């Protein structure tokens, strides 16, 4: 699903990395850290934007890092990427100094994000940039009234998801500007990055809808009402007359909050 998310948001991602390059003007970007690199969405976007840079891609998952390394090899970029398995909750790894740190949907997973932000600050060269990206809610795909089932099914799913995320990920929705400032950063820019796609959707966006709603169905299997479970099953069953890919009202709406901060010189 990470790769599908990257494809759907490719245009917005390119705009964001262009803005980072503008803010980095006068400070060469050669050493980049991608924290929580996953399958490499941020890594590859940054390599495209900064052709002189190499990226240390940090993740806790060997599987994700193997996927990233395989993708890098296929695209002829293996010599510019250093996969590094590390759990930042345990200790900051030996990365060397960096000109740019990218943390997309990773900071809220940290047990002690304030300590990690201080480690990032110490790792950045003076004048270096940190970009923190957080998607605080899952994307939305459906209208309130589907024409069957009880209206508001997707909204009720999001209420259940938010409740579970608040319990297991207490730093979701944190006051990141205050945390960044406390760690010694100066915030250069705050912005929202919005993806808004309307029907007819490209095939990638339809697959993204199936993947995301399927994941929601799995996560909430024991929490959904029987009626909402039945509605969601009908949307996900590709041979159903109500299947997602048959709907003219299918959409993709998602918003990410972005903070770009610098270590003062």
Automatic annotation (TrEMBL):
Pfam families membership: Methyltransf_25
InterPro entries named among the record's database cross-references: Methyltransf_25, SAM-dependent_MTases_sf
Signal peptide (residue range): none
GO MF term set: methyltransferase activity
GO annotation terms (biological process): methylation
Highest taxon in the source lineage: Bacteria
Residue ranges annotated for the Methyltransferase domain, each copy included: 32-128
Keyword field: Methyltransferase, Transferase, Ubiquinone
Annotated protein name in UniProt: Ubiquinone/menaquinone biosynthesis C-methylase UbiE
Originating species: Actinoplanes philippinensis
């Amino acid at each position: 699903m990470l790769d599908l998310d990257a494809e759907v948001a490719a245009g917005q991602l390119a705009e964001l990395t262009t803005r980072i390059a503008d803010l980095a003007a006068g400070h060469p970007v050669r050493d980049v850290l991608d924290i929580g690199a996953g399958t490499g969405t941020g890594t590859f976007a940054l390599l495209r934007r900064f052709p002189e840079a190499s990226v240390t891609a940090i993740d806790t998952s060997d599987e994700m890092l193997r996927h990233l390394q395989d993708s890098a090899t296929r695209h002829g970029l293996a010599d510019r990427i250093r996969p590094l398995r590390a759990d930042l909750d345990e200790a900051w790894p030996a990365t060397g100094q960096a000109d740019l740190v990218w943390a997309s949907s990773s900071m809220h997973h940290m047990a002690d994000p304030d300590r990690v932000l201080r480690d990032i600050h110490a790792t950045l060269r003076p004048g270096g940039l940190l970009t923190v990206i957080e998607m605080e809610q899952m994307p939305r795909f459906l209208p309130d009234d589907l024409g069957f089932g009880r209206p508001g099914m997707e909204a009720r799913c999001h209420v259940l998801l938010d409740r579970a995320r608040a319990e297991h990920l207490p730093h979701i929705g944190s006051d990141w500007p205050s945390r960044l400032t406390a760690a010694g950063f100066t915030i250069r820019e705050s912005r929202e990055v919005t993806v808004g796609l309307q029907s007819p959707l490209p095939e990638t966006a339809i697959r993204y809808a199936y993947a995301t709603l399927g994941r929601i169905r799995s996560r909430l299997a024991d929490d959904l009402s029987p009626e909402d479970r039945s509605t969601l099953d009908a949307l996900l069953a590709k041979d159903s007359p109500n299947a997602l890919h048959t709907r003219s009202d299918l959409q993709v709406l998602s918003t990410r909050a972005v903070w770009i901060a610098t270590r003062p010189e």
